[in-house]
């Protein structure tokens, strides 16, 4: 299954927002999304919630790519985003990299950049590792 299909099937909001997969491996996950009027707030600025969804989804995919043996998934338990710029056209790309991976939590840092590669948001999130219940 390709990355776009995987992301859209496991996180259906990504399908609603048109998120596409670019790269997926344990060290680096990239997802992208186009600017669209339906994803904006006042003044044609891409909504912060859309940016956070993109960042959270890239972080989740990165955490999933780093799952320890025996784990079945992850869930975000903490997320912090700093917004550094606005997006009024083009596309945005989220680049997620693991900061810390262990048997119970995975911490991921995600940069969100616009089409000109300008940093517009930075997210740090903690994902809990989910294991099968006995």
Your description of this structure?
With 134 residues, this protein is an alpha+beta fold. The protein has a single domain, classed as Hotdog Thioesterase (Thiol Ester Dehydrase, Chain A). Helix content is 24%, strand content 43%. The protein contains three helices and six strands; from the N terminus they run ααββαββββ. The protein has helices at 3-10, 12-17, 48-65; strands at residues 20-25, 28-34, 73-83, 91-101, 105-114, 119-130. The protein has a six-stranded antiparallel β-sheet with strand order 1-2-4-5-6-3. A hairpin with a 2-residue loop joins strand 1 and strand 2 (28-34). The protein is globular. The model has no long low-confidence stretch (mean pLDDT 96).
What labels would you give this structure?
134 residues, alpha+beta, Thiol Ester Dehydrase, Chain A
User: Number of DSSP strands?
Assistant: 6
CATH structural architecture: Roll
Topology-level CATH name: Thiol Ester Dehydrase, Chain A
Order of helices and strands: HHEEHEEEE
Order of adjacent strands in the largest pleated sheet: 1-2-4-5-6-3
The CATH H-level superfamily is Hotdog Thioesterase
Radius of gyration: 14 Å
* Number of domain units: 1
**Helix amount:** 10-25%
Overall average pLDDT: 96
Reconstruct the topology from this structure:
Blueprint: H1 3-10, H2 12-17, E1 20-25, E2 28-34, H3 48-65, E3 73-83, E4 91-101, E5 105-114, E6 119-130
In short:
By secondary structure, the protein is α+β, with helices and mostly antiparallel strands. The protein contains three helices and six strands; from the N terminus they run ααββαββββ.
